[in-house]
Amino acid sequence: MSSSARAFLADLAKARETQYDSISGVRRGDSDGEVSLLYSNDSLEEPLEIKILSMDVTSYPDDSCFMVFTSSETCDTKVLSLLELISSSTRGSTLHEVIQTVSDQLTASFDDTLESGFGSSASPDQDTPDYEFYDSFEISDDEAFPQVEKSRADEELQRLCKDLKTAKEAGVTVGIFPNTADRPLEVISLSIRISKLGITSETMHAWDIKVTDYIVLLMRLPNGYPSIATLLHSSRTHPVVQFRFGRCSSAKPSIESVRLAFQYSPAATKNSDNPDSTLPAFSSVCMSNSIDMLFNKSFVSLLRFRRAYGHTWDEAQATMHEYIGRIQSEIATENNMGLTGASHEIPISTHAPSSLQHDFALDDEASISFPLVAMQFALRRFCKCTEYCIVCHLKLQTDFVPLKPYVCAKDLCLYQYLALGLGPNIEHEVISSPYVVDLLISFFYTGETQRSIREFPCGLALRAPVIQQSAPHLQIETCIQFQQFRILLVRNEPMGTNIRKRMRNGDWFAMLTNKAGSIEKHTCYVSETLDDGLYKYETTNSIIWPKNRAEISISELIFSTAVPSKKDFWQSGFIFPYEHDVDNLDADQRAIALTELLDNLPSVLQMRSYLLDEPGRMLSSWKRINPSALSLMRWIVASNTSYIVQDGPVPSKDLAAHSSNENPRSAAMRKATSNLIRPLENGWMQFRFAQGSPEKEYAFLKTLQEMKSKNQSTAKPPSLFVWHGSPISNWHSIIRAGLDFQQTRHGRSYGHGVYFSKHMEVSKAYSTRLDFCAKAPFRHCWMGSELRISLALSICEIVNRPEEFVASHPHFVVDKEEWIQCRYLLIQIDPTENALKNPLFAPSGPECTGYIQQDPEHCIMREYSMDPLQIPLSALSIARQQEALGLTLGNTALGSITAVTNKIDDESCDSDSGDHPDILVDDILKLYRAHESRKRQRSTSPEPSSCGLASSPSPWKSTKWSEIGKKNTRSTQNMTVSLGSLDYKTIPQLPPPSWATSSPMALQTLTRELKHIHTIQSQNHAASLGWSVDTLAIDNLFQWIVQFHSFDSGLPLAMDMKSRGLRSIVLEVRFGSNFPMSPPFVRIIRPRFLPFLEGGGGHVTAGGAICSEMLTNSGWSPAMSMEMVFLQIRLGLCDTERPARLDTRQRTADYGIAEAVAAYIRAAVNHGWDVPEDLENIHAGWLMPPAS
């Protein structure tokens, strides 16, 4: 470790002990050089997690700089801009100075800028609704049943009705989703058919949308419909309106998909009688994440800037990034405050309907429609998404517009794009283009084995093993049959570390064992930590290293010192943890590490099946995938700026040549493969560069345009199509940076430049064939590949100027890189059986409309033939296709490839189904009045007694909750477990703890959590939740009793409960003084479970405590809700891999608190988890009530 790195770690240790204003939880992050901390402020609903990342720890602190950012999705835009500003001024600063700056600047920003906002012109007496979630520790009846005043409800609904009518008159289809009588209106949908936007078929295919789809903007109104004045003058940091952007096959999506989009559970359950439940689903598009982030963080602020200073949307975006640290008057002076003289821009695009060409954002306050303004802005960013950075949302400074959205060149944007998953959605790519993903991974893999990769993934904190005798490793004994191991000895352990203690659930490692004279390497991860120092593991793949491999000498040397195991079925082995940062390895070690990570991945078809089995899944949820391998795969896909599509199916050996019209394929397959090059020999799989890397594509098209302007009289085609062959190891770099001649691999007999040929067999000779060997440990092909590529050729388009080439015979030698652009990749493969069964998943684009006219003197030839190949028009952009069709087929063919708007019948566009605001408002008012009637009936009912609660109110008491619980008994008495059915006399009832009155944060958080638990229970059946908290019995906020019930009857736990006549599992939750900064303590009271060593499971310790990293300082997050805690505990109890079982020997004895705490500490130590500091107070420091 360098001295700079040691200095950084030393400063981090000091920072953890230093007291900063508003800063807590300073800790080391997940990546090297990363620090995580929490910032708290009264203006924030919850602490804000902030990341500080050193760009170069090796130069700390003299020449190092930091990136300061947050991963919060609800953080205010001004805070994000302030963090970016801080990042730009950190060079040469120490970690302490950066943390202090973050504390000072954020606090000053909240005190001055954010509180003043833009509402200084508003009267202080203005009636602005308060949207705080709660205002005190006690919860009133009105808070328990959220509602608005009738007059306010009428006013809001009438205003909403007017605004939605305005949107409908502008051509936008409106949908309204009532939720409950308490909140009769919560979500609005605004949609328009894509065919009305004038988007080309080429673009629609790149964005994976259909001409018949609708673009949908969802607006959720959790606090009612605010006026435009409220929106623009509000200084709240949390959103008053929430947005989701996507698509649907109908004008109005189903209510279930809308709820899923916002991830909330309303009181209304799925009802087959509800017409909205039968509608198509709302789903995301490739730019949804970016537009959602822009809307939820910045839209209201952007609208505020526009209306205050007369900006365009782009000007408002740029101004907002400059706002930090400046007072409003300065900006007003610079921008000539007011609407007069406003800049003009096209609101959406020139192809949008005329009814949407008016800039509705600048209408006067009395007539402005907020939903229509939001929809207009959403359509603008959708149609122009390729013109803006998908991370910072600023306009890209380029003259070339790519087919797919991309990121700007700023370091922070690039880092978030590649490292934080803000680039292409890897799950979407795997589902829609699995073989393109296979192709990209295979090219990277082979390139790394041949040391041909020019750019490497840096800063991703990729962890891999280093299998060397001098590297830290563990000597173990393992039982392969039962997938268990025990650590015997730690070798080469660095000072100050403890590898043994660091082994925990989920940790990955490479395990070497000696089998019949050969060394077997297993890739595994720890699945469970058992008692007595045993670890259970899962193996993802295994390979045998034959003894004739030179790379095995290291492992043989290691095994020469191994001590044979004396136990039956056990053998000696060695473990090499995934703990080495790939960035710090040399070239050879890095190549082995990166290929090792990729070999851990399942195949793309296996990943695709996993995702489709349960829609909405993420690959990160699959334990089978190593997190570093997933990050590497995401980088490989995201760093490819070319847009590659699969034109042809996976070729089978009995398939005739593509040119054969008598091929017995279906009409659908013929249509899907109409863009194949013809005639081409069998065995080639075709991929097409729908667009090369944006910079290279722009340079090439600019050159063509310049050539055309200089030679307008010539009739010859502007470009040639030629072959280029190169080893597979080069293609990873070629598809990213284009062809160049930086390296010499096959000589340069005809001069310096890139070599091309008209003849396929010539270029094929320059490609290196790879043979796939299933048993080779260091293969050249990716182990998980479904294609198993052996050879790759490219068809390139070059400028038709042979007289200016370096050489034109017998090869074309071109020394101007801007004259070259790859158009096709043709690969020879040895496909798996699974790939042969799934040859093609979707057409690569619109059906072929013709072929490109080639220069007769320089036609591209098929292999060993003088017959020219026919290149489909799809190799060109839409604009160039139109030009080519005009030259070859006449103007009659132009209509077939222009914007597909003409394909949609105007009558179908006018028949978009939606909701009429007048009718729905009437229905909503009826629901509201019915709710008012029920409320009046409740108010006339006699109040129940306090059931023994203390008469004097205390901050830790929840008297109101007791009343609510009684009122709610009727609604839950028919549940699987009725509230109030548990005999609390048999459960230890604790008095308020000594710290109750001195822990305001804990009190505030627990009040909010208890209110949320009540809301969830009132809106969902107990059986669907699987847990119940009886609020009637809670008179101490720091102790909750929870019942888990309604288990699947097929679970062994449910069978055991049935045999013993039990209806629930009773748990106790205790909260310490540091909550929510420290986790709660959760234990089972009754019944007793079968211990783990005797076959039990369910993540229950021998003393009844819940064994979960989530409930320790190592895995706890202050942002975690108790609802999520209950869900995770229930998932553990329902685990089928190691099912929970009841102990049939002890039917009545409850678990004690002392044995639970002891078992919890024992489990945490075995796993290497940090025990909360306030655990001792939760156990021994809690005063028990005096004996009566």
Automatic annotation (TrEMBL):
GO molecular function, a single term: nucleotidyltransferase activity
Cross-referenced Pfam families: PARP, UQ_con
Q: Low complexity bias: where? A: 951-962
User: Residue ranges of the UBC core domain?
Assistant: 1001-1180
Q: Per the record, which residues fall in region Disordered?
A: 932-972
- Record's PROSITE patterns? UBC_2
Q: Which UniProt keywords apply?
A: Glycosyltransferase, NAD, Nucleotidyltransferase, Transferase
User: Keyword rRNA processing: yes or no?
Assistant: no
Q: Which SMART domains match?
A: UBCc
Name it: Ubiquitin-conjugating enzyme E2 Q2
